[in-house]
Amino acid sequence: MSNPEKTERPAPGRTAVATLAGTTLEWYDFFLYGTAAALIFDKQFFPSLSPAAGTLAAFSTLAVGFVARPLGGLVFGHFGDRIGRKATLVVSLLLMGIGSTLIGLIPNYDSIGFWAPVLLVALRVVQGIGLGGEGAGATLMSMEHAPEGKRNLYAGFPQMGTPAGLVLANLVFLGTNKLVGDSAFTAWGWRIPFVLSFVLVAVGLVIRLRVTESPSFHKVLEKDEVVRFPLAESLKVGFPRLSLTLLAVVANSAVAYVFMVFTLSYGSKDLDYDKQFLILSVTGAAVLWFATIPVWTRVADRHGRRTMFIGGSLAILAWCAAFFPLLDTGSTGLAVLALAGMGLIIPVTHCVQGSIIADTFPAHVRYSGSSLILQAGAILGGGLAPMISTALLNSGGSSAGVTWYLVAICAVSLVGAVALFRLVPDGAPAGAPGATDAAAPLPEIGGEAWTAPR
What is the pLDDT of residue 297? Predict the structure, then answer.
């Protein structure tokens, strides 16, 4: 297999920035949809339904993207393990940008009737496939370029794209609303941020095309370890580690989407908070999330992931118990506190979940295996969370059911994390002995001479 990039000198810093830029743009598109689903799409695409049913229908189209993500993860994971990380990440960025741009051009229900929500769902599937290929691939690309002792830090750069994309989406959403006015924004102005995706993705492609292929994938090619069916090969890690890794990360996704998406709908429609106040508060919390990821990833590189991850899981559980009671007071000050608390606590576990998942698999099947865990967690957690929360709110008439739902899923993840770190101390790479000494050399796995990441 030809390898034209092999002679290029890897640039870890440039690669980390490129993965951050790419994931920011992809999450911009994804969160733009989530914000529009919470505030706009019920009126544009489901006007014949009641407000509650329209919101539930809009969140159902949000969930469709999560259902499509495993398909993207499987397809892009397969080719990422066979032909390389770089090419697949370029295609995933294109898919997301094209899908988002076309969403901004769909006629609404009043114009074409039934076909409006059909087209919305179809393009949401395209978005989901694109993001399904992005999530694991960007983490691998950055992590596999990492200098020694900075594996978690570099794996955290693509994770920063999540809050950065949220901030960008909300600022563009608010800015456009301010520019055209509320009535015009609801009627047609919401389309502008989606069409803007075309420009942003073009910029992202220029950045992404300049990075070199992953050194780990080069080693896989050199040792002729490319396998025909990498997903099937990745399952040899074993059910206990696969299932516990999935359980450990599922709560973070659920909590994040309730915080980022459901809160906008619930706060504005049920608690009468000002829409712009909520979006600005969530945006401010996302800035905290973004800024603290490098802090926590450095802690993980120096002191280990185990204590930090389990402590973060406990903190998320406790804050979920307090989150909606604080919002329900109707106090803007306590609402800001509730949202800011999420922005400070979510990154403790979010920042290292990418490296934990990646370290579950050897290099020659890492893209496929990581995509499987990441997208399964996204469906079980984030994809269904806003819809489940809306259904619980409608059936119970209060946020208590949503609180219990979040607490329960956090408890499941906490148990999964404790069991995972007992099975594999500090999330050492698959096949490694149960030593926790970060300096202890491990046997070669999938063509890489490993040193146990903390």
Answer: 95
